[in-house]
Amino acid sequence: MLGMTVGMIVVAAVVAMLVSTLSLNARALNDSYLNQELKAIMDIMVRDIRRAQYSAASAASVGGSACAHEFVCGLEDWMVEDARIEYTYDENASGSQDNDECFGFRHRLSSGVGKVEKKYSCTPTWQSLSDANAVDIDDLRFSAGIACIPSGSAFLAIREVKIYLEGSHAGTTRWLCQKVRVKNDLPSATCAATAMATSAPFNRCPP
User: What is the extent of the structural domain holding 74?
Assistant: First the structure.
């Protein structure tokens, strides 16, 4: 009788250890999956935003009017709001803006699940970038900053965008924060420097 009791205790301990190990493994897999998904979305946003307002005609238009080419002065050419960014760039290097050269990202809720959407045209057309069945995007924020660099009698506007992305999957929540430097600096007769946000959720981001 005593041996049976001891055996049951040992079996119970082994089962508890097995359950704990399986639970830890499942959590590790969920963490890895979520990190990979968020990293992939962040990488896509960073690479695309870096190209904002490029134009094959920009070199020929330096020193001209403030609206030197077709990717500068329209409302769709550069707009940064709390949970949305929109911009254009000369994807086919024609020097002219086509309908499929308006881009951007935004946070949307669909049936209570958050997702990241990407803009693909000036119409506009938005399509889901994240998989709402796999990852719930809890938050997406953008904040832009401008540094003014003297260039002759004018200035170059140097722009950076801070991106905060937060998502959850199977009870696990993770967040990423990254800064991206827009490669195409804007020449301007005047320039007003602005700082990127440091309030929540950007207070989590490294300086």
Answer: 20-204
Other C-beta atoms closer than 10 Å to the C-beta of 111 total 6
Residues 169 and 30: beta-carbon distance below 8 Å:
yes
Pairing between β-strand 136-151 and β-strand 84-88 as defined by DSSP bridges: unpaired
Domain count, the chain: 1
Give the integer Cα–Cα distance in Å for 100 and 54: 14
Instruction: Determine, yes or no, domain membership for 14.
Output: no
Residue 125 lies in a domain: yes
Locate tokens 């209570």: which residue?
112
Q: Is 1 a domain residue?
A: no
Per-residue confidence in pLDDT tens, the chain, 207 aa: 656 665 566 555 555 555 455 454 555 566 888 999 999 999 999 999 999 999 988 765 555 455 667 888 777 899 999 999 999 999 999 989 999 999 999 999 988 999 999 999 999 999 999 988 889 999 999 999 999 999 888 888 999 999 999 999 989 999 999 999 999 998 888 899 999 999 999 999 988
Residue 6 lies in a domain: no
